[in-house]
Amino acid sequence: MEPDGYAWWYVDATSADGAHGLTIIAFIGSVFSPYYKLSGRRDPENHCAINVALNGPRGSAWAMTERGRGKVARDADSFAVGPSAVHWNGDCLTIDLDEISAPLPYRVRGQVRVYPEIIATTAFLLDPAARHRWHPVAPRARIEVEMTHPGVRWSGDAYFDSNFGEEPLEAGFRDWHWSRAHLKDDVAVLYDGVRADGMPFDLALRCDRTGRWHDMVQPDAVRLPRTGWLIDRRTRADAGTVPRVAKTWIDAPFYARSALATRLFGEDVFAVHESLSLRRFASPIVQSMLPYRMPRSIF
Questions:
Q1: Burial, 214: exposed, middle or buried (Cβ in 10 Å; 0-12, 13-18, 19+)?
Q2: Across 75-172, where does the E strand assignment appear?
Q3: Which of 157, 215, 204, 155 is nearest to 182 (CA)?
């Protein structure tokens, strides 16, 4: 991977009863890493991490420890960062987690299995220069979560995608708001944001059971309540709908991940939503806070 580059593979999931949420992101050239930024972003492979965020009434956890290239191994089917690893066997994405949280140190350990129900082969450009690309791999999947630390076990619906880029995110964008929702038969994905040059961009897509994506007319814009860190949240919904923030799973100084009860394309849905402020991320105050939540292992 070239200097300034990045890649990540993202899984989000909710339990069948809606009580639990999970996000796992495997990074090369970790886009939010203060160490990658301070290094001049010369060597993406030296800044890797597997981030896990688990939420629920019977146990929540967060971990994101960065490791250097000496603790990273990857090939076409697997990616290991320290004691955690992701492996694809052709039918199932298995994620073995063995991390320590920060700033309060506690173990985050378990196994997650993702079984795709829809495989999509189309990738999308997020900017005119093609420096940022998004590839939804399995827009609809089934997940099985078995964590020993914290001790929770559940199953539910999942989503799996990947992103690749050739420059820092903040060089390409000011902010974005993204969401995905499983419809009765299809999957809806919405992007809505502002590029670094001030130009707005948006995508409204619907994936059918064959893995084909269809462009849709953007639903109406709706402003959501700001987060505890005063991050603006926006989404799209059918005309006359007032989306409700059912849960805020992650409330960080520059990022929020939430669960929405909303209506899209004529269906009442439960959507996973994220808002990212890259201007906030780039501020010196936020940069000074990041190492407390994103340590770098020296072992």
A1: exposed
A2: 78-81, 84-88, 93-100, 107-118, 124-125, 132-149, 151-165
A3: 157
How far is 9 from 162, CA to CA, in rounded Å?
Answer: 4
Number of neighbours of residue 81 by Cβ within 10 angstroms: 25
CA distance 26 to 45: 12
How many CB atoms within 10 Å of residue 199? 11
Q: Residue 223's CB: how many other CB atoms inside 10 A?
A: 10
CA dihedral 170→5→272→124, nearest 10 degrees, is: 100
Question: What is the C-alpha separation between 222 and 179, in angstroms, rounded?
Answer: 13
The answer to whether the beta carbons of residues 210 and 194 sit under 8 Å apart is: no
Residue that the structure tokens 């001030």 belong to: 198
Q: Does the structure show a pLDDT above 80 at 278?
A: yes
pLDDT tens column, 85-112: 999 999 999 999 999 999 999 999 999 9
User: Percentage helix, strand, coil, to 5, in the chain?
Assistant: 10, 55, 35
| C-alpha–C-alpha distance, residues 225 and 228, integer Å | 9
Coil, strand or helix at 120: coil
Give the mean model confidence (pLDDT) for residues 76-91: 96
